[in-house]
Design goal:
The protein is an alpha+beta fold. The protein has seven helices and four strands, in the order ααββαααββαα. A two-stranded antiparallel sheet has the order 1-2. It has a two-stranded antiparallel ribbon with strand order 3-4.
Length: 165
């Protein structure tokens, strides 16, 4: 079944003219998939347009607006308000998600995986995003261990092209 899913997604990706398939509602855990995607990151829109400041407030995951946007390290970040944009611009490195916005659990497994922007945690003021809510629940049970492993793996995979993992 996994091979069929992989073949179907690759065929779809080729038909759409892209080399990476976006998996948004997988039936499998991230470590069961050999698929990687960074369609959002490659398009230059960080965190699928979600406001990285809002994750740290009562608002939680909230889509930002193109009206309030900033470019940082090759990605465009969107915000819900001028106040959030100003806060980001004052210290962008503080607010960007860990591991370039890829799934933190995936990075702990040496994979660059797409994220569900509603599957997240903020640990010691660092935003960690996950593949989906199921993976986020797994992540939360041993997040300190996964963070340690991701910190070890990230320098090795950070600059590796998605298709080369």
């Amino acid at each position: 079944m996994r091979q069929f899913l992989k073949s179907t997604l690759i065929t779809t990706a080729i038909a759409l003219g892209t080399t990476s398939a976006l998996v948004t509602a997988p039936a499998y855990a991230a470590d069961e998939l050999n698929l990687t995607s960074a369609s959002t990151q490659q398009a230059g829109l960080a965190v699928q347009g979600y406001d990285v400041i809002a994750y740290r407030t009562d608002a939680g995951p909230t889509l930002g607006s193109a009206e309030f946007s900033a470019d940082y390290n090759g990605a465009t970040y969107r915000f819900v308000s001028q106040a959030n944009l100003d806060r980001f611009n004052a210290d962008p490195a503080r607010y960007v998600p860990a591991y370039g916005g890829f799934c933190a659990y995936g990075v702990s497994k040496s994979k660059k995986l797409e994220i569900d922007p509603t599957a997240y945690s903020v640990v010691d003021d660092v935003l960690y995003l996950n593949f989906n809510k199921r993976i986020q629940r797994r992540w939360s049970k041993k997040q300190d261990q996964y963070i340690d492993q991701a910190e070890t793996n990230w320098p090795e995979i950070e600059s590796v092209a998605i298709g080369d993992l």
